[in-house]
Structures are given as structure tokens and as C-alpha cells.
Design goal:
The structure is a single chain. By secondary structure, the protein is mainly alpha-helical. About 70% of the residues lie in helices and about 0% in strands. The protein is built from 9 helices and no strands. It has helices spanning about 1-50, 85-90, 105-120, 125-150, 155-165, 175-200, 205-220, 225-245, 260-285. Helix 4 runs antiparallel to helix 5 (about 155-165). It is globular, with a radius of gyration of 21 Å.
């Protein structure tokens, strides 16, 4: 009994620590990946137009080392310990003492806590590995979509294929349900997009939303799609109304839908069976 208890708490501690470290890395992904995409687009445009390649700073997720946005001082490894360094530095740069955004420790903490929740829900299993991959991808997509209203293919498409891979072994649903879920997820929002565009002449969402819902369909199956759409739409509408009322944001200002899809996907990850049962009972199915 004691050995099982110690093993359990070792798992919880290890996964939480890993989640905090990954959260720190996701801050880098959220900031740099859109810039890397922009560099790639510029290079492709110049190549297509047969123009000289633009001069651009070399940028990747690993290079250059992280630095303070205010003074440019490179961040030392001991100043980059998730959450702890922020607290020890009192939320300020060690060199110039300019405030550090609260977003960094919040992302680290949220990623760590969600990782811990996955460890507690799934234990040492293949489902835990899948849950962690989905959580970390969702956090990155949420941050990028909030900042840029983009959902990069370099995250959404691997997430879709990864969901199908896990469900080869029926980790979250059957493979048949996963394949149908991926197809139905994409087509559902694709149909809404074109119906809205043909009716109003405006684009109501981006193609990245289609791919993200397709990915969630691949993870949880077609049965979960109505629940995910309802949850994300309800929360998105509530937040949108709140922003209009509190911050006086106009209705014409576009808002990202990806964070709501990602959030609904994570709720489904932890409560799929309970919520699906409630939904089917409500619908009389």
C-alpha cells in the first residue's frame, strides 16, 4: 500500500514539474511561432514574385536565447525557473527592473495544474500521454489565437493525426468513431462558414477553427462533437457579451473562437462520459 502511495505521488510530482517546464516552453512557442510563420510567408512571397529574399533575423523555437523585451538582456537559466523565478524576482527583470507580464507564470501554472489533473484522472497509462499532448497543444493554440487570431497548421494538423494514432488502440474512442469525428468536425464548421459567408458576405471564422474541431473529433469521436460545439459556442457568446458590455468592444470586432474550442475539448477530456450522458438524456436519445 505504501509503495503504491509513493509511486502515485511520484507520478503526480513528476508530471506537475514537467507541466511547469512545458508551460515555460509554450510561452516561447506562443510568442515565436507566429513570427516564424510571418518570416516564412515573406520569403515565399518574395520567391513567388522573383524578388530578392528579405533580410530577416534567424529565429526558431530554440534560437536565439530568451531575453528581456525591454532591455534585451539575455535571461539566465536561474532566472527562468517556472513560476519560482517570477516570484523571487518580484515580477521584474533582473537587469532593468521593468515589470514582467503576469501571463508567463499564469501559463506555466495553468499548464502544470492541468497536467496534474490529467495524471490524477488517468494514472500511469497511454491515456495520460495522450491527455498531456492534447493539453499542451491546447494551451499553445489558445495563446496564439488570442494574440494573432491564427491557429497554426503546424499544431492543429499533427494534433489531428495524433488523435487518430492514439485511437488506433481505442484510448479515447474507437478508430471508426475517431475517423468519422475528424470528418464531421471539419465539415460542420466548414458548412457554417460558407452558409454565413453566402448569407452575409462576411467570413465568420477561419479555416484553423475547422481543423481544430476536426482534431477534437479525432480525439473524442463524432459523438462528442455536439457537446464540444455547444460548450464552445455558449462560453464564446458569454465572453463576447461580457466584453461588449464591460470593455465597450464593438460587435464588428472579430474575436478568436479557437480558445473556446480548445477549452471545450479539455472539458470533454476530463468529463466526456458524464457530459455525453447528460446531453443524450436531455435529447431523449
Amino acid at each position: 500500500m505504501l509503495d503504491a502511495f509513493e509511486t502515485q505521488w511520484f507520478l503526480y510530482t513528476a508530471v506537475t514539474a514537467l507541466g511547469l517546464v512545458i508551460g515555460s516552453f509554450l510561452n516561447v512557442v506562443t510568442f515565436r511561432l507566429p513570427k516564424m510563420m510571418e518570416q516564412g510567408w515573406r520569403a515565399e512571397c518574395c520567391e513567388f514574385l522573383e524578388l530578392p529574399a528579405p533580410e530577416q533575423d534567424k529565429l526558431s523555437l530554440a534560437f536565439p536565447n530568451s531575453s528581456c523585451r525591454s532591455c534585451g538582456t539575455e535571461i539566465k537559466p536561474w532566472h527562468n525557473i517556472p513560476v519560482i523565478s517570477f516570484l523571487l524576482l518580484a515580477g521584474k527583470c533582473a537587469a532593468c527592473r521593468e515589470p514582467i507580464s503576469w501571463r508567463y507564470p499564469v501559463v506555466e501554472l495553468v499548464t502544470g495544474l492541468l497536467s496534474l489533473a490529467a495524471a490524477m484522472a488517468f494514472g500511469p497509462s497511454l491515456a495520460l500521454l495522450g491527455a498531456l499532448a492534447l493539453i499542451w497543444s491546447s494551451v499553445a493554440l489558445t495563446g496564439i489565437d488570442i494574440d494573432t487570431q491564427l491557429l497554426p497548421d503546424s499544431i492543429t494538423l499533427p494534433l489531428l493525426w495524433l488523435g487518430l494514432l492514439f485511437n488506433l488502440y481505442a484510448v479515447f474512442t474507437s478508430l471508426e468513431s475517431a475517423v468519422l469525428g475528424a470528418m464531421a468536425g471539419y465539415m460542420a464548421l466548414w458548412s457554417i462558414y460558407w452558409a454565413f459567408k453566402l448569407t452575409t458576405g462576411k467570413e465568420g471564422m477561419g479555416y484553423g477553427d475547422f481543423k481544430l474541431l476536426a482534431a477534437l473529433g479525432a480525439w473524442f469521436g463524432w459523438q462528442a462533437l455536439p457537446l464540444i460545439i455547444i460548450l464552445s459556442s455558449f462560453v464564446g457568446a458569454a465572453v463576447g457579451i461580457l466584453l461588449i458590455v464591460v470593455q465597450r468592444i464593438g460587435r464588428e470586432v472579430p474575436m478568436p473562437f479557437g480558445p473556446y474550442l480548445a477549452g471545450a475539448g479539455l472539458i470533454t477530456l476530463f468529463y466526456q462520459d458524464e457530459l455525453t450522458a447528460v446531453y443524450f438524456n436531455f435529447m431523449g436519445l
